[in-house]
Specification:
This protein is α/β, with parallel strands linked by helices. The protein is built from 29 helices and 14 strands. Pfam families: AAA_23 (PF13476).
């Protein structure tokens, strides 16, 4: 047989599951672990309905929008894609009529094993015999119906007991009866006959009276026994009826809702509300002392994020600005020091130096002047030294002054004195000029020297040189000035750059501060503190943090509104001024009560069904409950308590026992008298009567044979039916017995069917005590092991389809659990097995037995591939 297994499962929308995918699912044992409410029960419903589609009105969890499931299945290397949408029939690609070759009811009864299935009362289940015991039994169970039909045909001829005075026997009986009466008239002549006849009649009357009395007492006993045996059920029925009538409104108005669906909505609503409360609390705590304009903050949040990134760049720019500004400041100090060191008369005045138009042309010009000056001076040294000229100049001046003095003291006329002094000085000047001209050579040379000296002086004045400096010194001085001017130029360029830098930073800072102020109600952002970039960054980060928290609050508020709309839509309630929390709590409580009432109604139906068949002799009609209630109430009028009724039952049992003995004694005495009476029937009249009686009996014989044929056929069918059941019991339960023996480690070696197939009970034979126990006598764990064994044996007789086991091993002891896991291990080689559990002990046992398994962790509808040890840790 070829294994069919699920390779991939995508759950788009189903209860707690939203867009969840499980890939590369193993074709052997797949263990899915999760705590309560993780989604295991929902997964079970998905897997059991997957190949057949979803049915309305079931216990399915509600979808978020519309049910949507996809699956990839493999069979003999062929892949099939299955899509299930809403309540539609599954779409299979490539097209195939059906993947699973058994009906949905059989698959759910056999291949999806949970505690409910292992604990269910099988007597109330339809077709469970065929499902658990296999094909053939369904046909065999039809045999009793055939037997009833044959008996019905026989009853048409002679009734149930074959009474000759009834049905089709009656005409023949009447003829025979008339002849018997004639025969009795003929025998009246004989006194002995009459005496015996009289005695016989008296006996028959006594027997008839006793039988009638016996039947009357038996009917009363049957009625009382039925009431006593069903008293507890009746009291429970009255209690249930009272509860149902009291809460009829709840049952009528809330039975259409799913408790799980409301619980899912309730949990989702509480989760979102708690998350909203947490987000709002975080926002309120963060915003304490901040008068934030929430609307502007949300509108500007994206821009604030951008500015936050900008402010980090601005911070670096400020760092660069400070470094550059410090460098410029130090450079300015250095330049001033250089200027002062060069010439203290400049007083560090950079503007003065920058206004000096000195350059390397000055140096060239100074070189040229110096060269020329030196040439002229060399030429002068050839005609006389400067020292000699100076001595002559001194001598002339002294002589002029001396002669002028002598003339002044000797002449009294002032005008003459004045004129003499003027003439004297003109003569001295002319003399000096002549000597000077003679010393310098030509007039041009003299002018040139004077011009050069004036030029040198101009340069000194412009350069503020107060000391005598050589031309080489001036050249070096100018070179120093040019170098300093170059540094000043560089400094001024950097200064301009710093100023622009400062301006750009200020513009950006003002933009940021302006944007921050827009997010406050009173725009009370401290501008003086805002000069600190750290202060701005703190404010920005605080606003962004507040913005994101406020955005989260808005998102969760929207989620809460959508959740409320979904809840009110599901509950079919108009929005209005209703409190969703109160409505949910009320519906949850009422739906829970409605489910309890539905269970009570089912229990009521079962009790009524049981009581109906207990009172088969009563004409209950349609109003079964009222009729049963009247029967009990009618009997209770005659008895003070149920104990009095029980004592009456015991007395009637003893009376029936005694009267049965009496009737048997009377019948024996009647038989003796009948034999005596037959000996007296010898006259000729009697012979004719006997001939007529014989003829009538011969005519009646074919009808009697036909009646016998029907009875014989029904007897043979009953015998064959019972023989078939007796021979098939061991064969049918052979594999189940082997599995049960392994699970119980040899404690029970054989499973047997109960005496009544319709009862669907099993007996287990103990290998130690050699006793047979019904399932009612077994412990809960052993009973579950028994029904698991029967299901596994049937699974092994069918095509290998996926098996789902949902925490149905929790009541097994450690030894039985290990034995069961060994069997599941072997089963997984033939069938894909999904084992759903929340118990770490089970997974630990699988890990210790080194069973090859694939593990998934399930948490709130989300699957995570894992290993056994990690899954044990998560569930512990």
């Amino acid at each position: 047989m070829i294994k069919l297994y699920i390779k991939r499962l995508y759950i788009g929308d189903f209860g707690i599951y939203k867009n969840e995918t499980i890939k590369d699912i193993n074709n052997g044992l797949v263990v899915v672990g999760g705590v309560n409410r993780a989604g295991k029960s929902t997964l079970l419903k998905i897997l059991k309905n997957l190949p057949y589609g979803l049915s309305k009105g079931g216990d399915l969890p509600p979808p978020n929008d519309k049910y949507y499931i996809e699956a990839t299945m493999e069979k003999d290397k062929d892949a099939y894609n299955l899509k299930l949408e809403g309540y539609k029939k599954p779409v299979i690609t490539p097209n195939i009529e059906e993947l699973y070759n058994i009906d949905k009811y059989t698959y759910n009864e056999l291949f999806t094993i949970d505690l409910d299935l292992l604990n269910n009362n099988l007597r109330e289940r339809k077709d469970i015999q065929t499902i658990l015991l296999g094909a053939g039994f369904k046909e065999v169970l039809k045999v009793p119906k055939i037997i009833r039909e044959i008996k019905k045909e026989g009853n048409k001829i002679g009734g149930i007991q074959g009474n000759p005075s009834s049905k089709q026997f009656k005409p023949f009986f009447n003829i025979i009866n008339r002849n018997i009466k004639d025969r009795e008239e003929a025998l009246k002549e004989k006194d002995i006959y009459l005496q015996i006849k009289k005695e016989l009649k008296e006996l028959e009357n006594q027997i008839e009276i006793s039988v009638l009395e016996k039947e009357k007492k038996e009917n009363k006993l049957t009625r009382l026994e039925t009431i006593v045996n069903n008293y507890d059920d009746y009291i429970r029925l009255r209690e249930i009826e009272g509860k149902i009538n009291k809460e009829k409104y709840i049952l009528d108005n809330y039975k259409g809702f799913s408790k799980e669906g409301i619980e899912v909505l309730k949990n989702e609503y509480e989760r979102i509300k708690n998350e909203l409360r947490e987000k709002a609390l975080v926002y309120e705590n963060l915003s304490k002392g901040e008068q934030v304009d929430k609307k502007n903050l949300l509108n500007n949040l994206e821009e604030l994020e951008y500015l936050n990134k900008e402010v980090y760049g601005l911070r670096e720019q400020i760092k660069s600005y400070n470094v550059l500004n410090n460098e410029n400041y130090n450079e300015k100090k250095n330049i001033i020091n250089l200027i002062n060191n060069l010439n203290s008369a400049l007083k560090g005045n950079m503007n003065y130096l920058m206004n000096l138009e000195c350059d390397y042309l000055w140096i060239d010009e100074l070189h040229n002047l110096d060269q020329k000056y030196k040439e002229l001076r060399a030429k002068e040294e050839g005609k006389g030294s400067l020292r000699n000229r100076n001595l002559i100049y001194i001598f002339v001046i002294i002589m002029t002054a001396f002669t002028s003095y002598l003339f002044i003291i000797s002449v009294k006329n002032n005008l003459s004195k004045f004129m003499f002094v003027i003439v004297q000085f003109l003569i001295s000047g002319s003399f000096i000029y002549i000597i000077n001209r003679l010393s310098y050579g030509s007039e041009e040379d003299y002018k040139e020297i004077r011009n050069i000296e004036n030029k040198f002086q101009e340069y000194k004045d412009m350069l503020k040189l107060e000391r005598e400096v050589t031309s080489e010194g001036m050249v070096q001085y100018i070179k120093s000035i040019i170098a300093i001017k170059e540094r000043i130029n560089n400094f001024l360029l950097q200064e301009k750059k710093v100023l622009q830098f400062e301006k750009d930073i200020e513009i950006k800072r003002e933009d940021i501060v302006k944007k921050i102020n827009q997010c406050y109600i009173n725009e009370d952002f401290n501008y003086s503190e805002a000069t600190s970039i750290d202060y701005i960054m703190d404010k920005l980060e605080k606003l962004i943090q507040l913005g994101f928290k406020l955005k989260e609050v808005e998102i969760y508020l929207g989620n809460l509104n959508r959740c409320e709309e979904k809840i009110l839509k599901y509950l079919n309630i108009s929005k209005g001024n209703v409190k969703v929390q109160d409505v949910l709590e009320e519906h949850y409580k009422n739906v829970e009560l409605s489910n309890e009432l539905l269970e009570l109604r089912d229990e009521k139906d079962k009790i009524i069904y049981k009581l109906k068949y207990s009172f088969l002799r009563e004409d209950l009609g349609k109003d079964v409950y009222d009729k049963i209630n009247n029967i009990f109430q009618e009997e209770f009028k005659n008895y003070g308590s149920i104990d009095e009724m029980k004592r009456e039952v015991e007395e009637l049992l003893q009376y029936n026992k005694n009267i049965k003995i009496t009737i048997e004694s009377l019948k024996e005495e009647k038989n003796k008298l009948s034999l005596k009476l037959e000996g007296l029937q010898k006259s000729s009249i009697l012979e004719k009567i006997e001939t007529q009686i014989s003829k009538t009996r011969s005519d009646m014989k074919p009808l009697a044979e036909k009646y016998a044929l029907y009875n014989c056929a029904s007897y043979i069918l009953e015998k064959a039916y019972n023989d078939f059941i007796d021979k098939s019991k061991d064969h049918i339960l052979n594999e189940a017995s082997n599995i049960f023996n392994k699970i119980t480690n040899g404690e029970y070696d054989k499973l047997l069917l109960g005496d009544d197939l319709l009862d669907m009970d099993f007996k287990s034979h103990s290998s130690h005590s050699n006793l047979e126990k019904t399932t009612g006598e077994l412990s809960r764990g052993t009973s579950e092991q028994l029904f698991l064994s029967v299901r596994l044996s049937r699974i092994l007789s069918l095509d290998p389809l996926p098996v789902i086991i949902d925490d149905s091993l929790v009541n097994f002891d450690s030894s039985s659990l290990k034995s069961t896991l060994h069997i599941i291990k072997e089963l997984s080689k033939r069938n894909q097995v999904f084992l759903l559990t929340c118990h770490p002990k089970l997974i630990q046992c699988i890990d210790e037995l080194n069973i090859d398994s694939q593990y998934f962790m399930l948490d709130k509808g989300s699957f995570t591939p894992t290993d056994g040890k990690t899954l044990i840790s998560c569930l512990s």
